[in-house]
Write a structure and sequence with these properties.
- The chain has helices at 2-13, 18-21, 45-56, 68-76, 89-92, 139-142, 155-163, 174-183, 185-188, 215-232, 234-241; strands at residues 24-29, 60-65, 82-86, 95-111, 128-132, 148-152, 170-173, 192-194, 200-209.
- The protein contains eleven helices and nine strands.
- The chain is α/β, with parallel strands linked by helices and 248 residues long.
- Strands 1, 2, 3, 4, 7, 8 and 9 form a seven-stranded mixed beta sheet that branches. A two-stranded parallel sheet has the order 5-6.
- Strand 1 (24-29), helix 3 (45-56) and strand 2 (60-65) form a beta-alpha-beta unit.
- Helix 3 crosses helix 10 (215-232) and helix 3 runs antiparallel to helix 11.
- It folds into two domains: 22-103 and 203-241, 3-Layer(aba) Sandwich (D-Maltodextrin-Binding Protein, domain 2); 105-201, Periplasmic binding protein-like II (D-Maltodextrin-Binding Protein, domain 2), CATH 3.40.190.
Length: 248
């Protein structure tokens, strides 16, 4: 009996199971309101969705806001666990992707007094673009070498350069443009315009480095939690809170 008790005690003193070692997930994100932001209670729509999904699996999250290129590089280097990112063939080589979190409608943003006429992407080649470094805008343009492109670190800087006439166009998510106009009407309303034509849709996912030792567990746990919040209506409630429509 004394031997059995000693054995049980030894087993209880062994380090906690693998699952307990990662009860906290560290996310990175850039300043990307209304999706991710240090200036929105709860961190923005995407942070709230990710937090809710992991909470269903008993996992806590914390997040850090930083420039986008650093945010995704930190996850690739395993300095952080995960980041929400748009799908691209290049990223598929480096990251494991979760089920789709949401869809972003991508639009051309221009100065209100700068007419831009186009039917196909080739029609846009004479115009200058300002894009966010390290971010996916529209894969057909991102990968093309015959478009005039300059890069900055934030969405807001890109739009500012368009307003100042230092670039003709930027490609941004429609929700971000609408949010900026709503939050800062004196700065943006009547000054920026976006084409009613959607350039395309970018699917947003949670991504984890393929080199992360628990990548599969993180993605599987998130996918389970995401299904649960969609089934319970929490996903839909958070989308409505931020004035977002559901896209399939």
């Amino acid at each position: 009996m004394r031997y059995v008790m000693a054995l049980l005690c030894a087993l209880l003193c062994v380090s906690p199971p693998v699952m307990a070692e990662i009860e906290n997930i560290t996310l990175t994100a850039n300043e990307w309101p209304p999706y991710t932001s240090d200036h929105i209670e709860g961190g923005g729509l995407v942070i709230e969705l990710i937090t809710a999904a992991f909470a269903e699996e008993g996992i806590r999250t914390q997040y850090q806001i930083m420039p986008w290129a650093r945010a995704i590089a930190s996850v690739e280097a395993r300095e952080a666990d995960a980041v929400a990112a748009w799908d691209s063939s290049e990223r598929r080589e480096t990251f494991h992707f979760s089920d789709r979190l949401l869809l972003n409608n991508m639009v051309l943003v221009k100065r209100d007094n700068n007419p831009v006429y186009w039917q196909t992407l080739d029609d846009l080649k004479p115009y200058s673009f300002v894009l966010v470094r390290g971010a996916v805008s529209l894969e057909a343009i991102d990968q093309a070498s015959d478009f005039k492109k300059n890069y900055v670190t934030t969405e807001e800087t890109a739009i500012d350069l368009v307003l100042k006439g230092r670039a003709d166009l930027t490609i941004r998510d429609q929700g971000i443009v609408e949010y900026l106009i709503q939050q800062q009407p004196e700065r943006f309303a009547g000054r920026i315009d976006f084409s009613g034509k959607t350039l395309g849709r970018n699917a947003l996912h949670l991504v984890v480095s393929k080199q992360h030792p628990r990548a599969s567990w993180i993605i599987t746990s998130f996918n389970r939690g995401l299904k649960k919040i969609k089934h319970s209506g929490q996903y839909q409630a958070l989308m409505a809170k931020y004035g977002m429509t559901l896209s399939e």
